[in-house]
Specification:
The structure is a homodimer. With about 350 residues, the first copy, chain A, is α/β, with parallel strands linked by helices. Helices cover about 50% and strands about 20% of the residues of chain A. The first copy, chain A, has a 7-stranded mixed β-sheet, with helices on both faces. The interface between A and B is medium-sized, with 31 and 31 residues.
């Protein structure tokens, strides 16, 4: 098991990564300052069957009496309607100010339960227990929480740092193959923007990782979270540096939006976006053709897509990018690489982006 | 016009009190750091007719393009359903991270719009423009925001300090008499817990105040806000001192709850609660009979009620108090006065409270 702290002043908190940690969530939460008493365990319909009883047992053995609040698996649960039903169940469960919310699941559960915790009684503790690779390497850390509106994703939310993050890599063994591989989108991103040796290690270890070797996964989850923690510590509220975490995401988000959020998983869209960003990096940030090819080849070896027919709809992609960046005119701030392991931002005109999309 | 700052580190902000300030809200907001561009003006159906166009004009003249978002007047608008509809209108109005929310109205609008601002794009600026006496002397300051659930009030919320508070006492001239007088519940509370000379001044000035004399109202609004600011600065998140602001509220909240939130306005329930608290203060905190009588006599002169038939239902009141304090057993922490102008807290058994209620 690896443990480190995210240093954020009064919001500092521990991160635990290891196999079998689910059985220790109660103890680890108590160690992080969660008070004994009634708590909520928010999870989704897929994860509940697999892990909710075991997690609730682990909580109970540490004096935390969990009411399980289950939502339907999938992005549609990040809605005002589901939020409202969770609030009612929080009231019925009599979760008090000294209580806590445990978020057991992937990114949807983490975002939703985190937002519930941010707004319940003006803020109660949340412990993130991510069970997908994407959530373990990325979304569980950083304090971003939120829900979607019919008109757009993540317009409503709050920054609410967890009291602790507990990533049990053993839960990755039950992930469907596509959801598992999706996680490598964010993993490769961390190497690309911050850690060139990590890219070399991924090139070497990918077969073991894709075979879900526990030790290899533990290493990669911890390394990704350490990199993200470094960025979040430097820029908690996305005023500057944190923007580099959006490498591959500008095109990725646009691709998700114009395909109606159904066709591509987030990590798949990011993978496609990273290839576009790699080419733009060659043109506008001095990334060498050799390093660009290495990055794209690594993405391809994970089985993630690196192209999408929708990229041909370059005008639609551009429109979605403007909407995502809340910019109606002018350049788009794009995260690029000047070398593997180092990100920069560059203002790019839409014409330059569309030209790359259309090649 | 009086202006002072609430000192809360990075969340410090100005408070302006004066007649006719509505015409300066744009300039004052810009001075407080609100960026030019699209903003939301959230108000209710009563206030919209009276003051929304004038406020929107004042915003426009300072480069703030306001989309007016109107909700039905009344406590029922503090709901998840209204919140959801406001979010949709915020999306349609394309309010960006650099945008702002202006809360024009009483406590309901302030709480609701403040919560919208706390959660829109993970937090945008809010400017509180209170138009009722209760909101001007009390609820606009302190950063508490939230909505109600069907099961209970204010379970969902966030601490979100305003960027500025702009209290135009001229708007008090259009308040219906009952809503106007309601505000004296909180005004007298501030004197009772923190400022004995203020009680003497209220005894002297009450006729002018009840006649809505502008200069007198400006003085009392500013004095109340200064007192609240002192408490909030010392204890922003209600860890300790801020609890004294609940003088009269323990019984007041219970009275509101058991009467279904329809019969009594908040300030009326607090007035009844203050009389009970005055008697308990004599018994358990050494308040002199003379000062207790002075306090009660002052409340009575405002026309606010000091008794309620529901107090006879002492078991129901006690049950509602337990629920309000999230306590299933044990003593209730009660805010009492040991002398006029000085509050203390005392743990009181339910039997002692019920005995006082039944006399």
């Amino acid at each position: 098991m690896g443990t480190f702290r995210v240093e954020l002043g009064p919001r500092s908190h521990p991160v635990h990564v290891g196999a079998g940690l689910l059985d220790q969530v109660g103890k680890l939460a108590r160690d992080a300052g969660v008070s004994p008493g009634r708590v909520a365990l928010i999870t989704d319909s897929n994860v509940a069957t697999l892990y909710a009883p075991r997690t609730a047992d682990a909580l109970r053995s540490a004096g935390l009496e969990a009411s399980v609040i289950e939502v339907t698996a999938g992005e549609t649960s990040k809605s005002v309607a589901t939020l409202s039903s969770i609030y009612d169940r929080m009231a019925a469960a009599e979760i008090e100010r000294s209580g806590a919310v445990f978020a057991l699941g992937g990114g949807v559960v983490g975002d939703l339960a985190g937002f519930v915790a941010a707004t319940w009684l003006r803020g109660v503790a949340v412990v993130q227990i991510p069970t997908t690779l994407t959530a373990q390497v990325d979304s569980a850390l950083g304090g971003k929480t939120g829900i979607n509106l019919a008109s757009a994703k993540n317009l409503v939310g709050a920054f609410h740092q967890p009291r602790a993050i507990i990533a049990d890599v053993a839960t990755l063994s039950t992930l469907p193959e596509r959801e598992f591989r999706e996680g490598f989108g964010e993993v490769i991103k961390y190497g690309a923007i911050l850690d060139a040796p990590m890219i070399a290690d991924l090139e070497r270890d990918l077969p073991r990782l894709l075979a879900r070797d526990g030790a290899a996964l533990e290493g990669v989850v911890e390394r990704s979270l350490l990199l993200k923690a470094k960025v979040v510590t430097a820029d908690e509220h996305e005023g500057g540096l944190r923007k580099i975490l959006n490498f591959g995401h500008t095109v990725g988000h646009a691709l998700e939006a114009i395909s109606g959020y159904e066709k591509y998983l987030h990590g798949e869209a990011v993978a496609v976006g990273m290839k576009v960003a790699a080419h733009l990096s060659e043109k506008f940030a001095g990334l060498s053709a050799d390093e660009s090819s290495r990055l794209i080849a690594l993405i391809e070896r994970t089985g993630l897509p690196t192209s999408a027919p929708e990229l041909g709809l370059s005008a639609q992609i551009a429109g979605a990018m403007r909407l995502d960046k809340k910019r109606r005119q002018g350049d788009i701030e794009f995260v690029l690489l000047d070398r593997l392991g180092h990100a920069v931002t560059r203002p790019l005109g839409l014409d330059a982006i569309q030209q790359e999309l259309s090649r």
